[in-house]
Write a structure and sequence with these properties.
The complex is a heterodimer. By secondary structure, chain A is of the alpha+beta class. Chain A is built from 14 helices and 28 strands. Chain A folds into four domains: 6-81, Thrombin, subunit H, CATH 2.40.10.170; 85-101 and 213-446, 3-Layer(aba) Sandwich (Rossmann fold), CATH 3.40.50.300; 127-199, OB fold (Dihydrolipoamide Acetyltransferase, E2P) (Beta Barrel), CATH 2.40.50; 454-581, Orthogonal Bundle (Bovine Mitochondrial F1-ATPase, ATP Synthase Beta Chain, Chain D, domain3). In chain A, strands 8, 18, 19, 20, 21, 22, 23, 24, 25 and 26 form a ten-stranded mixed β-sheet that branches. Chain A has a six-stranded antiparallel beta barrel with strand order 1-2-5-4-3-6. In chain A, β4 (41-53) and β5 form a beta hairpin. The longest helix of chain B is centred in the last third of the chain and has 23 residues, at 343-365. Classes of the chains: A alpha+beta, B alpha/beta. Bound molecules: adenosine-5'-triphosphate and magnesium ion.
């Protein structure tokens, strides 16, 4: 526990909210440690000041609070809740406060132990540092003075993010191996104060890192290899999107697939208040899975922030900020970073629990009135930035939302919809029908550009809406009451859905369709949708489309570089043309 | 050192307030009134004011009651001598056996470190085809039975428990009807399973607060058995009563409710219990099977809704059967590729055809004409429902798969089912 001269006394305890009487000044959102003796061990429970009234500070404790007494001591640190940023973050599994879970397990075995905090980075390890600046050079916060290799990247060692204005590089070490605590450079700021630069720095999680030149508009698509996303509801690099859906609709599976296939450099997975078992699957499988772009293990490009549902609620709230801060750090190196948060509703619920304890005036469904602004501020941390080096880096954010009762008319979904650029809504009807991924193709939308021609997509969307409308009508009037023309619309919509929008996540080929293939196959699908078929009765039409669908699904399972691919593409096209009138 | 205080300043519902100092949050106290006495737990500290939740309820507590603080939180005895015993929701003997006061473990201990969990790999056989074939239960899974009030959910729970090959069964009853308690006890006894079971029974007649304790004590004991290498099945019925007890306490403490009067932390409260389910790396496992009755048969009610977001699927009990569509085992794919090679295919094909059959039934109900295929589907639905879905069907998985083939063969021609030819050759009955 950190030493401190600013000691307060507990006046009240209710859940994880502790009221502390203090004498010396305290800072809003500073970290405090609540002192406790447990099984002969003196520990300090990490806490954050969240409200100050008169001589009393309300602190939220990031641990269970049983055993605390009125009068117990609380040490204020004067530091905001921060994370450590430096080489060695990739491949690790942290809790919401950036404690490495492996280190906790090594010390405490099966269970988490409160008040045990460990350094996130290895202080013994030596990194090969290569300088890239010269003494006398003028630098700004976020500009590199050198770099060390980490996984397949060059981890930039930068002028600390908090440094204001321009500074001058005074000295720089030679190329060589250094630990994270050794000074590698010294700079002089505008006020002629010296600052030491090490391989690591600290940054408060709730404050965005702004050491870049400018924000750009997200224009380049981030391919996920999921067709209904990339073609239909695309996400841009530096864009932000949400995935609301009822329980069991497939939010987590969608996030897991995205974390494997997304065309980005670094993935930060924030398991926020969800099942531990799901994270375990990622932790156990990622080291074995190969990143197709690099041939290295997927874990080497991944950071997992794991604050699952039975872990303390207050650190759940912190976990999404920890995750986004790590993401911003890698963005500063000109990398494409994807942050996947599952589920943002659990984070919002953590806010609600704390707000309730503070007895704030509740808004809708007892969420605090500031929910919207907090959600907005979080998603604002996504973006594509031009860095001071001229490179660009991006943080793309995808958050799942778990609306109560599966009803999107609720505060968290609504607050999120106001700020995201793409909405991938999962529907119960589609997941019940096992139409995966269960993204509703009619309700979902995106403001970003995708990988295929937008005019083609618009046409397909229109047809899908019409076809589904016919399908609904048919349930009322039966097949008999539907015209052949309408029946074709229905068959085409079902075809589009079955062979393009649905995707078998477990098939190695169908499960991941890259942008080239999407353009090519969507072109073929569009051609077919535009054809005017000659079948004279519904049964014949239905038989034709059933057989075509079957063939197309086989086609989806053939790799594009396989010789059979073109043959099959050609035979599908011919077969359709033969069944259609000339245009 | 036991500290004793006398003046109760406030009694509201099951919560009392007393002026005392040097009291720890979460600590237990004994509240003795002239006519009764009960344990209580500290749930809020406010300067000198201490709020306690009285396990026996507020009724009968006198303002001059003696309050003795015990210096520790809720604990429970743990050893093999628990086996065969029946306790109250608060952990006191309900049978004629001795009180067990030594070898205490903490109740509501810390969560398991996620990196110490393993991905589960073993199937739990139940003999119920709707589970074994279609939604396989997996060791260390957490799974509720969603049910409306009149369904035979406790019967189903008991049947699974009797057939599951586990070392220890821990049952917590919350707001259980006395008849249901006797039913569980007798059933365990008849099957010779009582000697490997521990029961914590809170009946509808017992104080509400004990309803909150029952699952925690049961899970603590179950976890301790699992740490000793045992394969444990923990049954919790009915979690909706548990949630209603939470609601009652929250309302007494004047917390702002979120939806329909339930506290805003309902999700976290439920999750901290369900997440006890675990497969320990290098020790035993804990499977958690619960009952969640759905008020008004409404899945979007806060209790089933929050539960669905936490558990690894659900068995949906409706009309005396496990519904194939609403039911889901999210872990089934971890085990059903290692059972028999036709398992996944039978599972998928039978459900797809049953979905089609349901559409045919609707069509029939609307008065539309039935074609030959529709009629086959209707036959199939009838066979499927009587020979597979009926809860009285009790078959080992392999026999259930064979029966599946038989039902298919009696309903369809062999090329109509979209089953891969290789499997047809091997399994389609002659
Ligand atoms: N793309 C998919 N392909 C095949 N099966 C899927 C797919 N998506 C979901 N599923 C099935 O649905 C189940 C539930 O999916 P998932 O865990 O992703 O739901 P969720 O929306 O995250 O639910 P919750 O809100 O409760 O966490 C999975 O276990 C799997 O069986
Ligand atoms: Mg999920």
């Amino acid at each position: 526990m950190q030493h401190s001269d600013n000691i307060g006394r507990i006046m009240g305890v209710g859940g994880n909210l502790v009221t502390v009487e203090f004498d010396l000044p305290v800072v809003q959102n500073e970290v405090a440690y609540v002192r406790l003796e447990e099984q002969g061990r003196h520990v300090g429970l990490k806490a954050e000041v969240i409200r100050v009234r008169g001589r009393y500070a309300d602190v939220q404790v990031f641990e269970p609070t049983h055993g605390l007494c009125v009068g117990d001591k609380v040490a204020f640190t004067g530091e905001l809740l921060s994370v450590e940023l430096g080489p060695g973050l990739l491949g690790q599994v942290f809790d919401g406060l950036q404690n490495p879970l492996d280190a906790i397990a090594a010390e405490h075995g099966f269970f988490l132990a409160r008040g045990s905090y460990y350094r996130p980075l290895d202080a013994q390890r030596r990194w090969d540092f290569t300088p890239c600046a010269r003494p006398g050079e003028r630098l700004r916060a976020g500009m590199p003075v050198g770099h060390v290799p980490e996984a397949i990247f060059r981890h930039a060692i930068m002028v600390p993010y908090g440094l204001k204005g321009w500074c001058t590089l005074v000295s720089l070490v030679e190329e060589g191996a250094y630990t994270i605590d050794e000074v590698v450079a010294v700079v002089l700021d505008e006020d002629r104060r010296e600052h030491e630069i090490r391989l690591t720095q600290h940054w408060p999680v709730k404050i965005p890192i702004t050491a870049y030149a400018e924000r750009l508009r997200p224009t380049q698509p981030m391919t996920t290899k999921i067709r209904i996303i990339d073609t239909y509801n695309p996400v841009a690099l530096g864009g932000v999107y949400c995935i609301p859906g009822p329980f069991g609709a497939g939010k987590t599976v969608l996030q897991q697939i995205t974390s494997r296939h997304a065309d980005v450099d670094v993935v930060v997975v924030a398991a926020c208040g969800e099942r531990a078992g799901e994270v375990v699957e990622t932790i156990r499988t990622f080291p074995e899975l190969e990143d197709p772009r690099t041939g290295r293990s997927l874990m080497e490009r991944t950071i997992i922030i794991c604050n699952t549902s039975s872990m303390p609620v207050a650190s759940r709230e912190a976990s999404v900020y920890t995750a986004v801060t790590l993401a911003e750090h890698y963005r500063q190196m000109g990398l494409k970073v994807l942050l996947l948060a599952d589920s943002t509703s659990r984070w919002a619920q953590a806010l609600r629990e704390m707000s309730g304890r503070l007895e704030e005036i509740p808004g809708e469904e007892a969420f605090p009135a500031y929910l919207e602004s907090v959600v907005a501020a979080f998603y604002e941390r996504g973006g594509v930035m031009r860095l001071h080096t001229g490179e660009t880096g991006s943080v793309t954010i995808g958050g799942t939302v778990s609306p109560a009762g599966g009803n999107f008319e609720e505060p968290v979904t609504q607050a999120t919809l106001k700020v995201v650029g793409a909405f991938l809504g999962l529907s119960r009807a589609r997941s019940d029908a096992r139409r995966y991924p269960a993204i509703d193709p009619l309700d979902s939308w995106s403001h970003y550009d995708g990988v295929v021609d937008p005019a083609q997509v618009a046409e397909a969307r229109r047809l899908l809406a019409q076809g589904f409308e016919v399908k609904q009508m048919m349930q009322v009037v039966g097949d008999e009451g539907t015209s052949l023309e309408d029946y074709f619309l229905y068959l085409k919509a079902e075809f589009l859905d079955a062979v393009y929008l649905q995707q078998d996540a477990f098939d190695p080929v169908d499960g991941a369709t890259d942008a080239d293939r999407q353009r090519r196959v969507f072109g073929l699908v569009s051609e077919i949708l535009a054809m005017d078929f000659t079948m004279q009765d519904k049964d014949a039409a239905k038989r034709f489309f059933l057989a075509l669908t079957q063939t197309f699904l086989d086609f989806n399972r053939i790799p594009m570089d396989d010789e059979k691919f073109e043959d099959m593409e050609r035979s599908i096209r011919t077969r359709c043309k033969e069944a259609a009138r000339d245009a | 050192m036991h500290r004793i205080f006398h003046r109760i300043e406030q009694i509201a519902g099951n919560v009392i307030m007393v002026q005392a100092d040097d009291v720890a949050y979460g600590e237990l106290a004994e509240v003795s009134s002239p006519k009764n006495s009960s344990l209580a737990q500290v749930i809020r500290l406010e300067r000198g004011r201490v709020y306690l939740q009285v396990f026996g309820g507020g009724r009968g507590v006198a303002t001059n009651a003696k309050i003795r603080f015990l210096g520790h939180g809720v604990r429970m005895h743990f050893s093999d001598s628990l086996l065969g015993r029946i306790f109250t929701g608060g952990g006191l003997p309900r049978d004629k056996g001795p009180a067990l006061t030594d070898a205490l473990i903490e109740v509501a201990g810390p969560p398991v470190n996620p990196v110490k969990r393993v991905v589960p790999t073993r199937m739990v056989r139940t003999g119920i085809p709707m589970i074994d074939v279609f939604n396989t239960l997996v060791e260390s899974q957490k799974l509720p039975i969603f049910s409306s009030a009149g369904e035979p959910y406790n019967l189903l729970l008991a049947r699974i428990a009797m057939q599951a090959e586990v070392d220890v069964i821990v049952l917590a009853g919350m707001g259980l009807k006395h008849d249901d308690y006797l039913f569980f006890r007798d059933m365990l006894e008849e099957h010779g399973a009582l000697s490997r079971a521990v029961l914590f029974i809170h009946t509808a007649a017992d104080p509400t607060v004990e309803c909150l304790l029952a699952p925690d004590i049961a899970l603590a004991v179950a976890e301790a058995f699992a740490l000793k290498g045992r394969r444990v099945l923990c049954l919790l019925t009915d979690m909706t009563n548990f949630c209603d007890a939470l609601k009652e306490i929250a309302n007494t403490m004047e917390q702002i409710p979120s939806t329909r009067g339930y506290p805003g932390d309902l999700y976290s409260q439920l999750a901290s219990r369900y997440e006890k389910a675990v497969d320990f790396h290098g020790a035993g496992s804990l499977t958690v099977l619960t009952v969640t009755t759905m008020p008004g048969d409404d899945v979007t009610h806060p209790v089933p809704d929050n539960t669905g977001y936490i558990t690894e699927g659900q068995f949906y009990l409706k009309g005396g059967r496990i519904e194939p569509f609403g039911s889901l085992s999210r872990l089934k794919q971890l085990v059903n590729d290692k059972t028999r090679k036709d398992h996944r295919t039978v599972m998928n094909v039978m459900i797809q055809l049953y979905a089609e059959a349901r559409e045919a039934k609707e069509k029939q109900a609307m008065g539309f004409r039935m074609n030959a295929w529709d009629r086959k589907l209707l036959t199939y639905a009838r066979l499927f429902e009587t020979e597979m879905m009926d809860l009285s069907v009790n078959l080992p998985l392999e026999d259930a798969l064979d029966r599946g083939w038989s039902i298919l063969a009696r309903s369809f021609d062999r090329q109509e089912t979209a089953i891969p030819s290789a499997l047809i050759e091997e399994f389609w009955p002659a």
